[in-house]
Amino acid sequence: FSGKFMKRCLIFLLKIVVTIALAYIVFRNIANTPGFDSNDLEKVLSQIKVWPLFVALLCLLVSNLTGCLQWKTLLKTQGVRLSYFHVLRLYFVGLFFNNFMPGNVGGDVKKVYDIRVQGGVDSVGAGLTATFFDRLFGFFFLTLLALGVGSLFFIHDPEQRAFIIPSLWVFLGFCVLFAAIFSRRIGESLAKLLALIFPENINTRVLRMLERFRSFRIWNLWGKLFVLSTITQVLRVLVHYFCGIALGLDIAVSWYFFYIPLVALVSALPISIGGFGPRELLAQSLFAKAGVPVLESVIVQLLAYLAGLVISLFGAIFFVLDNGKKNKEAK
Fold first, then answer.
1. Cα–chain-centroid distance for residue 245?
2. Kind plus residue range of the DSSP H or E element containing 68
3. Quick check: 91 and 311 in contact, CB under 8 A?
4. Is 248 helix (H, G, I), strand (E, B) or coil?
5. 78 in helix, strand or coil?
6. pLDDT in tens, 197-234
7. CB-based contacts of 64: which residues, under 8 Å, 6+ apart?
8. Which of 4, 227, 253, 280 has the most CB atoms less than 10 A away?
9. Is-contact 145 257, C-beta < 8 A?
10. Are 275 and 268 spatial neighbours (Cβ–Cβ below 8 Å)?
11. What is the SS3 assignment for 299?
């Protein structure tokens, strides 16, 4: 076995260990809840309302349609011109792989590869740049959403005010990152620094990537991104809200807009399998401050995750159909 393969196996095993360890802590928190009984889980599940789950699925489906339009807009800026339905197929296939492959990035790699094959470009640069920036802008807008809601509804609550600070720091971090990738002067300074550390070929690739990022410095484009991200991210937060309604939780939607962005950012860290463990553990800690029992807070996250799995099955269908078409053409 090559050293690269062994390294991947080791990283994967570490993620399994982190996932199991955090899942154990989540379970222990539930089991240690005063008055908790083994029948509580069955009781909570038996009381789930079906109609809010259908609304959650609809919200997630529409958010993926607008999210796909955002990705297509970025691809077009990079010179990749494909029909919306074509891009939609690639987008949903990516969702499917993101849910079922370790690290939560398998789908992004698949999307970049498909753009390379089908987009008519000579390198992976266009697809990689658009896909990376799509992710980056999504997280940026989620952070902005949490910061805005926190400032409007929780700034006067001493206990909740502390959670505005992480959002503020992450937001400032994104601003510095955008300045680095969009400013030619900062980019050249960064390239000189990288030249002292990395080989020349890597430094050249970084410079090319920065040049591609600068094609996004268009005010009209940012206006479109803000509109599409508003629709996409608001709907994705509402998925959790309706999952909470399905469980009978009676808390204001502002709690979700304040907490879910933080949960999403943490679950995106490549330290566990599919974000499981960090997502549920943080949700337990945060929503407990809104009066949500630890069991219900975990089930809300699992229901939202299952909704994502269901919607991503469209990607599985597209993937099978595309492979069947390729096999027929090969014959």
1. 23
2. helix 51-77
3. no
4. coil
5. coil
6. 777 777 777 778 888 888 888 889 999 999 999 999 99
7. 91, 92, 95, 311
8. 280
9. yes
10. yes
11. helix
